[in-house]
């Protein structure tokens, strides 16, 4: 029977595939794919963990005091029976062999299958045995976590990234939520779409899904409970609908839409090397957002003219309590700089916090899980300044990379002039240390992210200190509207079209241009074609987005007369419904391109 689940559309397109559930657990579970050569190793890990847990249970049973209730040894016997039941361990091995899941993921996947079977049992006693099964599974997971292979596996390399671990069927990921750590592992994997119970349009999961250019629906509430392992799913990323076990007619309709989408992508890809120039002759800079050094060649291939945002915090994640050293960071930054072939690379200092916490053991001072509101806590530049040794280490690595190409430094979440001055002092100290050590570096431009309303309101003071600014619209919207962008219960109130947000963006662009300072937008608005004309009207000439979004934005730029839109800017900014006004103006002003512009914009 077909079921429809509704959520928020956050990444456009259609995905069709079998469901892969990442179940929630009280025990942290690593999720990664393994190569053929590691299958026996993972099965061995499972076997060793099972034997260890069996030993623990038998020891508990042996050491029970004589006065212990008779039910206790019987309960331990039930746990031992479940532990050795082939329905649990045997089927878990099959997940490892067939899907190439790591042992922990395979075990949690099989638990999900069995848990649903228990839920459907009519007998109350048998249904309650699900709790025993959960306890056994968590014992196994803890046993595996004590082993040498408990941390996240490295991201798959080129050889394994293209392997179809799911056999002939495409796979889509379903979870309550997907942590940035898991997203980093899944980034180059086989999933063609994502569905999560929680999240908003600019939650980290949504941003990464868009960056991967794959369909996604978030905030689907009970999706991970309704959907079963291996169900066939259709993810409609345009409408925010997930169809579970669709009928043949519906499936064929969506497959047709998939083919149309692929044709559109192929058409847009022809714009890769076309200069981004508006109809009235304004040259526009289209930059790329990247998360890892290996993303840089992808940016070049997509036609980016530089990197507008290198999110350095992803170098700090999935490290099992160990932060990257100066040399490791330097090598990563240098790799990105060299891959861009002389084009500029803007490296943002580590932006840890809110929906991107470090591993719990990485920095003892950071306890995001206990913060009342992590988005307002010790994060981004606040955290960097509170960890001066770590911060100078990162600054030295960035400076050393500048000897290999054009590098700029971007400081996140600036809200005080004092933060700006302390950052420049730390940079000066890092330069001094490199000079004393005889290491090469060049002077680099330093910019501030405008993502806190306070920064927009004191921008003239910041422009006297910084060389450029970059508007992070995701957080700027969140802080302006007091909306947690990762909370699906208020996601409908997160509104990039809100007049207050648009006025802050317009004001920031105008003041930066008046001061002769470069200004860019690196938030989600930059990669959304619905905002391209409006941002051009505001005077923006530098957009930074994921490489997959560049061609669509370039097409919009090629079809826009920026002067005509600028003449209507005040009308838009003072409207109660700016989105509706923009839609009307688009129909009136833009129309269909003609002449040479039409030839470029095909």
Q: Could you explain how this protein is built, in words?
A:
By secondary structure, the protein is an alpha/beta fold. The protein has 3 domains: 3-23 and 155-266, Glucose Oxidase, domain 1 (3-Layer(bba) Sandwich), CATH 3.50.30; 36-145, PtsI, HPr-binding domain (Enzyme I, Chain A, domain 2); 270-600, TIM Barrel, CATH 3.20.20. It is 46% helix and 13% strand. It has 26 helices and 16 strands. Strand 7 (232-236) and strand 8 (241-244) form a beta hairpin. Helix 1 runs antiparallel to helix 3 (89-99) and helix 13 (326-339) packs parallel to helix 15 (388-401). The longest helix has 24 residues, at 39-62. The protein starts with a strand and ends with a helix. The model is unreliable at 148-166, 360-370 and 592-602 (pLDDT under 50).
Quick rundown:
The chain has 602 residues and is of the alpha/beta class.
Layout: helices, strands, pairs:
Layout: E1 3-6, E2 8-11, E3 14-22, H1 39-62, H2 71-84, H3 89-99, H4 103-119, H5 124-128, H6 130-145, H7 158-161, E4 171-175, H8 180-186, E5 191-196, H9 204-211, E6 216-218, H10 223-226, E7 232-236, E8 241-244, H11 248-269, E9 285-290, H12 296-302, E10 307-311, H13 326-339, E11 345-348, H14 380-386, H15 388-401, E12 407-411, H16 417-437, E13 445-450, H17 453-457, H18 459-463, E14 468-471, H19 473-481, H20 499-514, E15 518-521, H21 532-537, E16 542-545, H22 550-558, H23 562-566, H24 569-573, H25 578-590, H26 595-600
Parallel strand pairs: 3-4, 4-5, 5-6, 9-10, 9-16, 10-11, 11-12, 12-13, 13-14, 14-15
Antiparallel strand pairs: 1-8, 2-6, 3-7, 7-8
Helix pairs in contact: 1-2, 1-3, 1-6, 2-6, 3-4, 4-6, 13-15, 15-16
């Amino acid at each position: 029977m077909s079921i429809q689940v509704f959520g928020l559309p956050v990444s456009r397109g259609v995905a069709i595939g079998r469901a892969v559930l990442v179940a929630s657990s009280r025990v942290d579970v690593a999720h990664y794919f393994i190569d053929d050569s590691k299958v026996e190793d993972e099965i061995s890990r499972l076997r060793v963990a099972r034997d260890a847990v069996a030993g623990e249970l038998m020891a508990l049973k042996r050491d029970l005091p004589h006065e212990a209730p008779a039910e206790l040894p019987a309960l331990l016997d039930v746990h031992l029976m479940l532990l050795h039941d082939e329905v649990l361990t045997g089927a878990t091995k099959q997940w490892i062999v067939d899907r190439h899941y790591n042992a922990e993921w395979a075990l949690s996947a099989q638990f999900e299958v069995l848990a649903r079977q228990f839920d459907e049992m009519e007998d109350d006693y048998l249904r309650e045995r699900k709790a025993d099964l959960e306890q056994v599974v968590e014992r196994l997971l803890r046993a595996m976590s004590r082993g040498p292979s408990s941390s996240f596996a490295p991201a798959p390399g080129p050889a394994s990234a293209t392997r179809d671990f799911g056999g002939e069927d495409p796979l889509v990921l379903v979870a309550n939520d997907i942590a940035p750590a898991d997203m980093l592992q899944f980034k180059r994997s086989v999933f063609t779409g994502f569905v999560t119970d929680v999240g908003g349009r600019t939650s980290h999961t949504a941003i990464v899904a868009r960056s991967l250019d794959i369909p996604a629906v978030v905030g689907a509430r009970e999706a991970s409970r309704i959907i079963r392992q291996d169900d066939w799913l259709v993810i409609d990323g345009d409408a925010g609908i997930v169809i579970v076990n669709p009928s043949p007619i519906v499936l064929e309709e969506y497959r047709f839409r998939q083919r149309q989408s692929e044709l559109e992508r192929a058409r847009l890809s022809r714009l890769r090397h076309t200069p981004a120039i508006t109809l009235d002759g304004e040259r526009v800079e289209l930059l790329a957002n990247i998360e890892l050094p290996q993303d840089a060649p992808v940016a070049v291939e997509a036609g980016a003219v530089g990197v507008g945002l290198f999110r350095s915090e992803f170098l700090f994640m999935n490290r099992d309590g160990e932060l990257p050293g100066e040399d490791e960071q330097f090598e990563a930054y240098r790799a990105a700089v060299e891959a861009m072939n002389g084009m500029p690379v803007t490296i943002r200092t580590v932006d840890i916090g809110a929906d991107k916490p470090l591993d719990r053991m990485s920095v003892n001072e950071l306890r995001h899980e206990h913060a009342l509101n992590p988005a307002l806590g010790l994060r981004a530049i606040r955290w960097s300044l509170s960890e001066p040794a770590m911060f100078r280490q990162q600054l030295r690595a960035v400076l050393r990379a500048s000897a290999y190409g054009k590098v700029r430094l971007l400081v996140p979440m600036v809200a005080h002039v004092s933060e700006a001055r302390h950052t420049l002092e730390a940079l000066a100290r890092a330069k001094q240390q490199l000079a004393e050590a005889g290491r090469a570096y060049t002077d680099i431009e330093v910019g501030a992210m405008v993502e806190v309303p306070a920064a927009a309101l004191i921008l003239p003071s910041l422009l006297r200190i910084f060389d450029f600014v970059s508007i992070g619209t995701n957080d700027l919207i969140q802080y302006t509207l007091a909306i947690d962008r990762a909370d699906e219960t208020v996601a409908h109130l997160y509104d990039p079209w809100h007049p207050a947000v648009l006025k802050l963006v317009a004001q920031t662009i105008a003041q930066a241009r008046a001061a002769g300072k470069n200004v860019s937008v690196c938030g989600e608005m930059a990669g959304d074609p619905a905002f391209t004309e409006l941002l051009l009207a505001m005077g923006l000439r530098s957009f930074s987005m994921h490489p997959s979004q560049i061609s669509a934005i370039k097409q919009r730029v090629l079809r826009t007369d920026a002067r005509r839109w600028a003449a209507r800017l005040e009308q838009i900014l003072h409207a109660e419904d700016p989105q509706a006004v923009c839609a009307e103006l688009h129909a009136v002003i833009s129309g269909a391109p003609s002449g040479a512009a039409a030839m470029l914009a095909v």
